[in-house]
């Protein structure tokens, strides 16, 4: 049922899924790539909340005619109970058709939330304007952002354009080849739990955070990535969610954000202040060269000691009448220029 859900990259919560018809002895899921493609890695995701539906015994196969299938031996799995997996091939496989042959599973029917096939190679750098622009790294699962960052930048008085690059394509090498260079890089928030993501896709972004000299601002998940670039466990699940993008939720026991170290990034912002937020993870460990500037019930603002790089857990870019932090993004852009 619902085969399209396997490649539904717009499914923010990984809640949709494919499910096999009942009472079958085995199942297979076939992918037609439209032509011969080189595949070197596969990501597959099941249900993280329950064992039922997870794949137990399976193997990947490939074909050039969808009739004669060959096993890919290193993909064989027996007695598995994992809900997620990254399968690397010893040697890249070239074929038009790939299929997952499922021999046994937990529960009455197998269930798959997502599958992604990867080809080796270097993404093509984006076309950039000749005028000043900001590079937005889109961290939402489909590779974009929700539009608030772009609107806030383009509606500012700085006369800046924007270019958005998906998180799974960006790298330090890509940015180094851009001409002209962006005046700043903004890392957007994202829309999934880390457990439901193939985290290697963010390696290029982590490289930017560690090595790039262009001013960087991380927003929400991008803020957490500034810490996670030095260790995955530097951000952790809070055990609850903060959802204050509606005014009626904002001040119902919400701890205001307190500035604990003055900085030009806070110009025009009261202390303490309220800002819209939507997150259930937080930064808990700081890299050596990063300091905390503001807190609430969690770390809200961080700053690099060696370059222009800030992280904000809230969403200063959202245009809401009760957002007291709207100057934050503008102050960053002013500093970057």
Strand content: 25-35%
Number of helices: 6
CATH homologous superfamily designation of the largest domain: Class I glutamine amidotransferase (GATase) domain
Query: Briefly, what CATH class of the largest domain?
Result: Alpha Beta
Q: Which secondary-structure class do the elements indicate?
A: mainly beta
Average pLDDT confidence is: 94
CATH topology of the largest domain, which one? Rossmann fold
CATH architecture grouping of the largest domain: 3-Layer(aba) Sandwich
| Morphology call | globular
The gyration radius over C-alpha positions equals: 22 Å
Q: How many discrete structural domains?
A: 2
Pfam family, one: F5_F8_type_C
Keywords: Glutamine amidotransferase
Protein name: Glutamine amidotransferase
GO molecular function, one term: anthranilate synthase activity
Give an overview of the whole structure.
- By secondary structure, this protein is mainly β.
- The chain folds into two domains: 3-118, Jelly Rolls, CATH 2.60.120.260; 133-336, Rossmann fold.
- The protein is built from six helices and 17 strands.
- Strands 9-8-10-11-17-16-15-13 form an eight-stranded mixed β-sheet, with helices on both faces. Strands 4-3-5-2-7 form a five-stranded antiparallel β-sheet, with no helix packed on it.
- It comes from Aerophobetes bacterium.
- GO terms for molecular function: anthranilate synthase activity.
- Residues 1-120 form the F5/8 type C domain.
- InterPro entries: Anth_synth/Amidotransfase, Class_I_gatase-like, FA58C, Galactose-bd-like_sf, GATASE.
């Amino acid at each position: 049922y619902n085969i399209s859900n396997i490649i539904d990259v717009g499914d923010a919560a990984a809640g949709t899924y494919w499910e096999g018809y009942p009472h079958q002895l085995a199942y297979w899921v076939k992918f037609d790539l439209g032509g011969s493609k080189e595949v070197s890695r596969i990501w597959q995701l099941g249900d993280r909340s329950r064992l039922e539906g997870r794949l137990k015994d399976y193997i990947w196969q490939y074909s050039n005619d969808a009739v004669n299938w060959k096993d890919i031996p290193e993909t064989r799995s027996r007695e598995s109970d994992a809900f997620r997996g990254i399968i690397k091939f010893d040697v890249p496989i070239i074929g038009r058709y790939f299929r997952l042959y499922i021999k046994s599973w937990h529960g009455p029917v197998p269930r798959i939330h997502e599958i992604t096939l990867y080809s080796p190679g270097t993404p093509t750098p984006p076309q950039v304007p000749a005028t000043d622009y900001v590079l937005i790294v889109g961290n939402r699962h489909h590779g974009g952002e929700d539009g608030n960052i772009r609107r806030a930048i383009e509606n500012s008085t700085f006369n800046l354009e924007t270019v958005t690059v998906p998180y799974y394509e960006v790298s330090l090498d890509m940015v180094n080849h851009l001409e002209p260079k962006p005046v700043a890089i903004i890392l957007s928030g994202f829309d999934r739990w880390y457990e439901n993501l193939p985290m290697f896709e963010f390696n290029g972004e982590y490289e930017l955070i560690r090595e790039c000299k262009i001013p960087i601002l991380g927003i929400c998940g991008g803020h957490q990535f500034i810490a996670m670039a030095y260790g995955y466990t530097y951000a952790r699940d809070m055990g609850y969610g903060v959802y204050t993008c509606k005014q009626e939720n904002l001040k119902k026991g919400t701890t205001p954000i307190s500035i604990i170290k003055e900085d030009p990034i806070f110009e025009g912002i009261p202390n303490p202040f309220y800002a819209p937020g939507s997150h259930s993870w937080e930064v808990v460990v700081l890299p050596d060269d990063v300091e905390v500037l503001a807190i609430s019930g969690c770390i809200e603002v961080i700053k690099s000691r060696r370059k222009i790089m800030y992280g904000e857990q809230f969403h200063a870019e959202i245009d809401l009448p009760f957002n007291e932090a709207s100057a934050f993004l503008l102050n960053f852009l002013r500093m970057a220029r």
